[in-house]
Design a protein that fits this description.
The chain is an alpha/beta fold. The relative contact order is 0.14.
């Protein structure tokens, strides 16, 4: 399988690339900063340098030719502005969907966030509010396409060691944590799970083996 990961230098993306490369898949990681080449190649992926906030659909589509699936794992990151929550967390996800359609790639995994279905509580930080709204808008846009999409909503992400056991279910699901390692492993498993097409899945720490959880 040839998989293209948008936001390829993120913590989840690097772990996903390593998992996919380790099982023999071909991985292309789209990153903005060419200085990230060493990290991406160490994970087993090939780097494609492209700024998702500035690229056109056609420019991105050239990097998707021949791919079997795309994964949107990009994010504006901590400390970013309200504006960049929109240009990265929403607009870049839509750009990837449009480019995938143009390149003839049908499978699309979107890494979203838990909490997007509820309106932010009064007094919520404006940047966090913008983040949730951007993620929800990205979900809505991707769901409106004809792509074979699956939306994954991890809980609060941690860098704790992965334990290969999770709770994976359609919403609603109680709030909770999940490791970035387990999130990457679930994404890898979802690529081999066509029955999850058209589903929105919440991800938390749990007690079910990942492969079994994805089959439920």
């Amino acid at each position: 399988m040839h998989v293209v990961i948008a936001g390829g230098h993120g913590k989840i993306a690097l772990q996903l690339a390593a998992l996919l490369a380790g099982r023999g898949d071909v991985v292309t990681s789209v990153v903005r900063n060419p200085d990230h080449r060493a990290d991406v190649e160490k994970a087993g992926a090939t780097i494609a340098v492209l700024d998702l906030e500035a690229a056109s659909v056609a420019e991105l589509a050239t990097h998707l030719k021949g791919a079997d699936a795309v994964v949107f794992a990009a994010g504006a990151g901590p400390g970013s502005s309200v504006e960049r929550k929109d240009t990265v967390d929403r607009a870049a996800a839509v750009l990837l969907a449009d480019a995938a359609a143009q390149a003839g790639v049908t499978r699309y995994l979107l890494v979203s966030s838990t909490g997007v279905d509820e309106p932010p509580a009064e007094g919520t930080d404006e940047v966090w509010t913008a983040y949730l709204r951007a993620k929800k808008a990205a979900e809505d846009a991707v769901r409106a396409t004809s792509l074979e999409w699956t939306i994954l909503r991890p809980g609060r992400l941690t860098d704790d060691p992965a334990n290969a056991k999770v709770l994976l279910a359609e919403p609603p699901v109680p709030r909770g944590d999940v490791t970035r390692g387990d999130t990457a492993a679930v994404l890898a498993a979802l690529l081999d799970a066509p029955h999850t097409v058209g589903k929105v899945l919440e991800l938390r720490e749990g007690d079910v083996d990942i492969l079994a959880a994805v089959q439920l």
